[in-house]
Amino acid sequence: MVRVGIIGGSGLYELLENPRIVRLDTPFGHCDVQLGELAGEEVAFIPRHGTSHRLPPYKVNYKANLYALNMLEVERIIATNAVGSINPALEPGTIVIPHDFIDMTKCRDVTFYDGETTIKVRGREVSGVVHVSMTPYTYCPEIRASIIEAAEHMGLGVRDGGVYVCTEGNRFETPAEIRAFSILGGDIVGMTGCPEASLARELAICYASISVVTNYAAGVSGAVKLTQGEVIEIFSRKIQDISRLIEETIRRIPKRRECPCKDALSEYLK
Ligand code: HPA
What we know:
Blueprint: E1 4-8, E2 17-26, E3 29-38, E4 41-47, H1 62-71, E5 76-85, E6 95-97, E7 100-104, E8 119-121, E9 124-126, H2 141-154, E10 159-160, E11 163-167, H3 175-183, E12 188-190, H4 196-202, E13 206-216, H5 228-237, H6 239-252
Parallel strand pairs: 1-4, 1-5, 5-13, 6-10, 7-11, 11-12
Antiparallel strand pairs: 2-3, 3-4, 5-12, 6-13, 8-9
Helix pairs in contact: 2-6
The structure holds hypoxanthine.
Hypoxanthine binds near residues 82, 167, 172 and 217.
Organism: Candidatus Korarchaeum cryptofilum
Protein name: Probable 6-oxopurine nucleoside phosphorylase
Catalytic activity: a purine D-ribonucleoside + phosphate = a purine nucleobase + alpha-D-ribose 1-phosphate
C-alpha cells in the first residue's frame, strides 16, 4: 500500500529521487506511475501532462490516473495546479490552497459510475448510479490543514482558501469569461482541477490542491497577451518551494483518516 499520491501539474514533472516507473493497466487505459521515497515514505507520483508535457488538459486521462492511484490503495492525493488569478489581490507567485471549485468544463469524462462499470475500491465493489457528495468539504480538510501548517513551518506565505474555476481550454479565457467567473465568486482559474478532484471523491480518496498563480487571468491587468511560456516560467521559479511544501505536508498528514472523504462511498459499498 502507498499512502500518498502526488499529481504534478505544468512545471512539475519530477519530484522523487530515483523513481521506478510502474505501468498500471486500469479499466480506463494505462498509467505510468513513478514510485519512490519522499519524507521517509514510499509515495506515488504522476506528472499529469506526461513527463515531457505532451498532453493538453482536455486530453489528460484523469480516470486512468485516479484509478491507478486507487489500485495502489492511495488514501491521500496532493495535486499541484498552475492557475491564473481572477481576484486581482492574488498576484503572480501567490500559492493558493483552494477550498471550493466551479466546474466549467464541457466535454470531459466526469464519472467512474456510468451505470455499467464495476469499480473496486479497497477490495470492495461499487457499481450502478453513484452520486458522491462534495459537502461538507469540497477538498480534504485534513490535507488542506497539513499544507497550511507545513507552509507556516517553512515561513512560506500561502493563501488559505479560494474558489478554483476549471475551464475546458484549450485556449485561455476571454476577458468577458473572466469577468463572469469573478461575479460567480471565482478567485483562480485553471484547466486541470476538474474532474480530477471529484473523481478522487468518487474513489473515497482525500484530495487537495496547491495552486500556483502564474499570471493575471485574461483582462485582469489590462489587455496583455497570455502565454504558456509565462505560466511555465513563473511556476518554475516556485518549484523548490512547492517541492519542499509537498514534502513537509506529507510529514504532517495524519496517518489515520478522520475526515469525511473516507466515507464518500459508505452507502454504496457492497
Ligand atoms: N487560465 C487558465 N489556465 C491557466 C491560466 C489561465 O489564465 N494560467 C495558468 N493556467
